[in-house]
């Protein structure tokens, strides 16, 4: 697989635009708890795995909101294609490394871990998240029924990534991350309509 797109600023800008779209949709719907208006309360982020000069300033924060109503004031963090929950490394990096893992030689695996300045324990946690947490979620069960009938227990994320079609790997990864968006937020996971995003399956 060709990973040149990881060094393409346009790819990262496109992901940022998808997050902006999702965030704006969540803001317009208001607080999911009381319906009041939401005010910006972004989280600062220092993402790892890709040179920051390629990412741009928009990757220094994650969109988030706070309810304006006294007595509620609850936080609402929109789903994201850039960030997998609170994980420090970008979602693209976590997805690709874990998808590649099945075919990596021990030497290549060690090289990638060193190249990303990645602790082996962190990599093991990512694998555990894909293999134990994600398959047990209601969202994944729904996706598997629609997109991977009869897939059995094939490992994630590779099982789904291989099923998606696009002009190139960058497109497949982008589509994959869009499908995974509901798993990236516990406070607004149902607020974004994925069918509004451009897609090709």
Low-confidence stretches: 196-201
Strand order of the largest sheet: 1-4-5
Radius of gyration equals 17 Å
Measured distance between first and last alpha carbons? 19 Å
Strand content: 5-15%
Based on helices, strands and strand pairing, what is the structural class? mainly alpha
Instruction: Count the beta strands.
Output: 5
Characterise the protein shown here.
With 201 residues, this protein is mainly alpha-helical. It has one domain (4-192). The protein contains 8 helices and 5 strands, in the order αββαβββαααααα. The protein has helices spanning 9-29, 52-55, 91-100, 106-115, 120-133, 138-147, 158-161, 169-180, and strands at 38-40, 43-44, 61-62, 65-67, 75-76. It has a 3-stranded antiparallel beta sheet, with helices on one face. Strands 2-3 form a two-stranded antiparallel sheet. Strand 4 and strand 5 form a beta hairpin. 30% of the residues are buried.
């Amino acid at each position: 697989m060709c990973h040149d797109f990881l060094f393409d600023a346009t790819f990262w800008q496109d992901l940022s635009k998808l997050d902006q779209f999702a965030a704006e949709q969540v803001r317009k719907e208001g607080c999911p708890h009381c319906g009041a208006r939401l005010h910006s309360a972004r989280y600062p982020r220092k993402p790892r795995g890709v040179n920051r000069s390629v990412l741009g300033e928009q990757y220094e924060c994650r969109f988030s909101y706070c309810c304006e109503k006294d007595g509620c004031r609850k936080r609402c963090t929109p789903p994201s294609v850039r960030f997998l929950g609170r994980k420090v490394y970008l979602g693209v990096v976590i997805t690709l490394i874990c998808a590649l893992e099945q075919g990596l030689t021990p030497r290549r695996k060690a090289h990638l871990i060193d190249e990303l300045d990645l602790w082996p324990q962190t990599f093991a946690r990512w694998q555990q998240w894909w293999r134990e947490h994600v398959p047990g979620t209601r969202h994944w069960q729904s996706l598997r029924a629609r997109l991977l009938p009869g897939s059995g227990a094939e490992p994630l994320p590779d099982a789904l990534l291989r099923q998606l079609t696009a002009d190139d790997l960058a497109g497949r990864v982008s589509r994959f991350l869009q499908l995974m968006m509901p798993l990236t937020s516990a406070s607004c996971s149902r607020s974004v309509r994925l069918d509004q995003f451009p897609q090709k399956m």
